[in-house]
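We close this part of the discussion by returning to an individual protein. Part of our work consisted of pairing the sequence of a single chain with a tokenised description of its backbone. No coordinates are needed to read the tokens, only the vocabulary itself. The amino acid sequence and the backbone structure tokens for this protein are reproduced below:
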Amino acid sequence: MKERDKRILVGMSGGIDSSATCIMLQEKGYEVVGVTMRTWDVKSQFSTPGQDEPDFIIEARKLADRLGIEHHVADVRNEFREVIVKYFIDEYMRGRTPNPCVMCNPLFKERILCELADKTNCANIATGHYCRLEDINGNRYILTGDDATKDQSYFLWKLPQHILKRMVFPLGGMTKAEVREYLSQKGFEAKAKGGESMEICFIDKDYRDFLKEHCPDIDERIGTGWFVNSKGLKLGQHKGFAYYTIGQRKGLEIALGKPAYVLKINPLKNTVMLGDAEQLKAEYMLIEDVNVADMDEVLQCKNLSVRIRYRSKSIPCSVKPLEDGRILVHFESEASAITPGQSAVFYEGNRVLGGGFIAFQNEVKKIVNGMNQQIL
């Protein structure tokens, strides 16, 4: 093994998963180099008054010292704000619900890891994601992790091949409980008992508070609008379309005498359509910004399925590519709460074939009707 091949760069968050990743790789004979990215400072991450660095950096450095590994801190706060936080805010201002983790992996974290790996003479990069990898016909595919409750394959569909081919996921064949037990056996009992990280690393509480803080003129730019029903009749006022998401039921602050859900958001008219749960169901879905390793494989897949949100089950489906690059997805069983801006990720069994972002669904009926007329 060449010296470069022996060196591997690990993204260290100071938490359970990345800590276990470092120890496992070191046991396998790798020369581990750790890097911790300082992307965004959240108040809860500073446990001591006057503390210069967030807790997770201190924790990562302590682990690196204990393991005797090289450790670097990458202060990328400005770039993170300009790339990921800007995307997050812009999507809500467009009436969409963003997937910051999906965008962060290819545009930010894994890209920076690859750049730092080159600078530190590391052939590959490793993270504590709960997923696995498989090489088929020259392409590298992501497989779901063995722990279904922690599987993170959904968030990685946008990673390009040149990054995937440098990645290592040591935890993919383990459950979270097994990882905790592993750390405990290696003498890291306190670390093994650590808590879970935040779902969105830069948001401490509610995303609406975040929008107000970092886009202080949001209420002036959007203003109040109208809740409407599916026929366009006004039901009452809302605070502004950016504060709502498809499928939302709680926090609407409107009494209709029955449960109401957000069906559609129209940012141009600043309207939020409400209806019942049945109206959330859909047979078709449009997606855009598609990234798949092999489109022919997706089209010919006999057991294709799609996940439309992180915690949802895969839904059997078929797809039809459109001339403009978008894809029309036909669900074999109805899906609910199709949310523009969220990810639609295609699977063949436990293998990720690729994905795309859910588009606004205004044109679905027109497209489907046009297809049906062609058949007739």
